[in-house]
Amino acid sequence: MNKNTVLGWATLIMILMGLLLIGLGAFKYNDIAGYGFAAVGLGFFAIAWVFNALKGRV
Predict the structure, then answer these.
(1) Could you give the angle at the alpha carbon of 37 between the alpha carbons of 35 and 39, nearest 5°?
(2) What gap in Å lies between CA 48 and CA 34, rounded to an integer?
(3) Residue 21, SS3?
(4) Tens digit of pLDDT per residue, the chain (58 long)?
(5) Hey, is 37 helix, strand or coil?
(6) Which of 29, 43, 46, 55 is 20 to 30 Å from 10 at the Cα level?
(7) CB neighbours of residue 31 within 10 Å
(8) pLDDT at 31 (0 to 100)
(9) Residue 39: what pLDDT?
(10) How far is CA 39 from the centre of its chain?
(11) What is the DSSP letter of 31?
(12) What DSSP letter does each residue of the chain carry, written as one string?
């Protein structure tokens, strides 16, 4: 696997984890903790966006 393949897999894993965390925040934890889970999920999306932008440049 080259660097671009690794970044592609990392992007996919980060998107899946972000969706999982947002889902936990929306459906399992309906109190204040849900906002924290959703915020961390959005952070995972931001990091996945950076990984996607780095593909082909590293």
Answers:
(1) 65
(2) 21
(3) helix
(4) 888 899 999 999 999 999 999 999 989 988 888 899 999 999 999 999 998 898 888 7
(5) helix
(6) 29
(7) 6
(8) 86
(9) 94
(10) 11
(11) S
(12) --HHHHHHHHHHHHHHHHHHHHHIIIII--SHHHHHHHHHHHHHHHHHHHHHHHTTT-
Tell me how far CA of residue 51 lies from CA of 3, 4, 13, 18, 27, in angstroms: 11, 10, 11, 14, 28
CA distance 57 to 42: 24
Find all residues with CB under 8 Å of 58, minimum gap 6, and list them. Answer: 3, 4, 7
Dig out the tokens for 16 from the structure.
């899946």
Q: Are 52 and 7 in contact (CB under 8 A)?
A: yes
Amino acid at 22: I
